[in-house]
Amino acid sequence: MIRLLQIELQKLLLNRTSKILIFISFILPLCVIVLSAIKINFFGFFTLELGELGIFNFPIVWHINTYFSALFKFFFAIVVVSMIGNEYSNKTLKQNLIDGMSKKEFILSKFYTILFFSLISSLIIFIISLILGFVYSSYNEWSIIMRGIEFIPAYFFKLVGFFAFCLFLSVLAKRSAFALAFLFIDFILEWILFGIIAWKSNVDMAEKVQSFLPLTSMSNLIKQPFQRIAMSKFPEKNSLDYDYAVHFDATLIVILWTAIFIYSAYYLLKKRDL
After folding, report:
1. Residues spanned by the domain of 201
2. Which one, out of 37, 98, 108, 218, has a CA that is 20 to 30 A from the CA of 50?
């Protein structure tokens, strides 16, 4: 495992574009700390300070940071599809196989890289959330601090699942641009299917079916926090209630999709004549 990971990391570090995109994907979440301290003056009428709005308090800080940090995953997604695209365009895939690397090891090296960067990203978000929570929250009981910590592993599985999907699409398409296009097409198709089922049956049935689809299942791991913020500001309004928790069944669906994507990528490569 370590050997395969080292081989892949060496390739990425030799690629200037990959280094820039990896740096951006890691540095952007750190901007949350800067944003928390910014004071915005609205023409002298009032001053808005994000850190004083309560969005960085325990336990909601885990939800807020993982949700918004997940939006930056597209930068590393480009790195993932480029890992495969460059192997085909530079003919290094065939050379790796000639040098003794099996097709299984080739796919595993990419998957280990996905796991590595997803883990590093999750640790960064954990540390950032912990710092912001201690700075802005008045709670110091560990029972409250750790409430909502499940959003961190959910963030990890969301990244791994999404990047595994990108890996599969890049093996399927062989070209980075095509892989990203297929990703967008899948997003459109999932909503078209939702619309058809909602039209033929009902919205509840459409939502249940859509929850099993790749991108939607990943999105459902960490739901939008805006309604939760509104709930904390207006607790008397029952109409704002919604289920924002991380559920085991949603996590399991993403794990199953991850396994399907990795195996499918290996199967395609195994059957393909290089």
Report:
1. 2-30+40-271
2. 218
Q: Is residue 35 part of a domain?
A: no
pLDDT tens column, 209-244: 999 999 999 999 999 888 877 776 666 665 556 788
Any idea how long the chain is? 274
For residues 55 and 135, is the Cβ–Cβ distance under 8 A? no
Range in 38-52, 186-200, 211-225 the model is least confident about: 38-52
Q: How far apart are the first and last CA of the chain?
A: 24
47 pLDDT band (50/70/90 cuts)? low
Domain presence at residue 192: yes
- Quote the DSSP letter at residue 238: G
Number of domains in the chain: 1
Does the model's pTM come out above 0.70? Answer: yes
Q: Is residue 225 part of a domain?
A: yes
Question: Residue 57 is encoded by which pair of tokens?
Answer: 């308090």
Given a cut of 80, whether residue 192 has pLDDT beyond it is: yes
Half-sphere exposure of 260 (CA within 13 A, CB side): 12
Cβ neighbours of 99 (radius 10 Å) = 8
Helix (H, G, I), strand (E, B) or coil at 155: helix
